[in-house]
Write a structure and sequence with these properties.
This protein starts with a helix and ends with a helix. The protein has helices spanning 2-22, 24-28, 38-61, 66-86, 105-120, 131-167, 208-212, 214-221, 237-243, 269-286, and strands spanning 197-203, 226-232, 250-254, 260-265. It has ten helices and four strands; from the N terminus they run ααααααβααβαββα. The protein has a four-stranded mixed beta sheet with strand order 2-1-3-4. The radius of gyration is 28 Å and the shape is elongated. It folds into two domains: 2-167, no CATH class; 197-286, 3-Layer(aba) Sandwich (Glutaredoxin). The longest helix is centred in the middle third of the chain and has 37 residues, at 131-167. By secondary structure, the protein is of the alpha+beta class.
């Protein structure tokens, strides 16, 4: 019974791993079951993965009811596959083990067979395990959990990257009459504008949004091609007045020689990146 539990638990973990690794492909496969909204597909995708991992751990360590629950889950999956086939979805992605598996009667039979295998676990004679065996099982489950979490982190990072690429940079708010005119030359203390781009960020001590955006400023400042310098409303009041800064947080991007190439109020990292993207385009156009 121990071998059967471990093998079936590994199959569930493999299914969860496949869904995580395929990311958007496995979520898109949920359209085959009538889930049209992306939010619904995301929620269903995450719930199924969490359920499969939880049941895999429960089956591996012999938690009462875990095998029966896994059998019921697979039976529901088999019904969903059969319904999808009846609606003409045969041959479409099923998302069972990732984005490559397909809906068909073979997948229904496979799912029912797995359900029966899980259901047979409680019917097999129970054998008591030595303490060392339990430790080995626990270690295996812990390692499997770490592997799943690592894959989930990588998949999440990739999805965030795809989302940022699909959204693209957002424009900062730049109004006429606020801040210095584009193309003018600005001289600010503590700034070396001899080369590259320089981002002058105007912040206030009583500005909660400025504090929230500080990690974004550190992220932008980690780029060796961009120099970032903050100017406080009280400590650098002269610079605020000279440049007619309307409020905080406000950014002015200076090109080589201190020429203003972009400016505007930003409230998010995307808007800050949009400010820098506009500055790079202006610098290339002027070159």
């Amino acid at each position: 019974m121990l071998v059967l539990r471990v093998v079936l638990a590994a199959i569930l973990l493999g299914a969860a791993f496949g869904k995580l690794a395929s990311g958007s492909a496995s979520r898109a496969a949920l359209r085959s079951y009538g889930l049209k909204r992306s939010e619904t597909r995301m929620a269903a995708w995450a719930a199924v993965i969490a359920l499969e991992v939880t049941l895999a751990v429960g089956v591996a360590i012999g938690i009462p009811g875990a095998a029966e629950t896994a059998a019921g889950m697979l039976a529901v999956f088999a019904v969903a596959l059969a319904v999808a086939i009846s609606r003409g979805a045969a041959g479409q992605p099923c998302g069972c083990f990732g984005g490559g598996s397909r809906i068909g009667w073979a997948s229904v039979a496979r799912t029912l067979l797995l359900s029966a295998a899980f259901l047979s676990i409680p019917l097999l004679p129970d054998t008591r395990l030595a303490a060392q065996t339990w430790l080995e099982i626990g270690l295996a489950v812990a390692l499997a959990g770490i592997a799943v979490l690592a894959v989930a982190l990588l998949a999440l990072a990739r999805e965030v990257g795809e989302l940022r690429l699909s959204i693209g940079p957002q424009a900062a708010l730049s109004l006429e009459g606020e801040g210095p005119e584009l193309g003018t030359v600005v001289r600010l203390p503590r700034l070396d504008t001899s080369d590259g781009l320089t981002l002058a960020v105007f912040t206030s001590r009583n500005c909660p949004l400025c504090e929230l955006l500080r990690p974004a400023l550190r992220l932008v400042g980690s780029d060796p091609a961009v120099q970032v310098q903050e100017f406080d409303e009280e400590e650098d009041a002269a610079a605020w007045d000279a440049l007619e800064v309307p409020g905080s947080p406000y950014g002015i991007v200076l090109g080589p020689g201190g020429r203003v190439v972009a400016k505007g109020t930003f409230n998010t990292l995307l808007q800050l990146e949009g400010l820098l993207a506009g500055a790079r385009e202006a610098s290339l156009a002027a070159a």
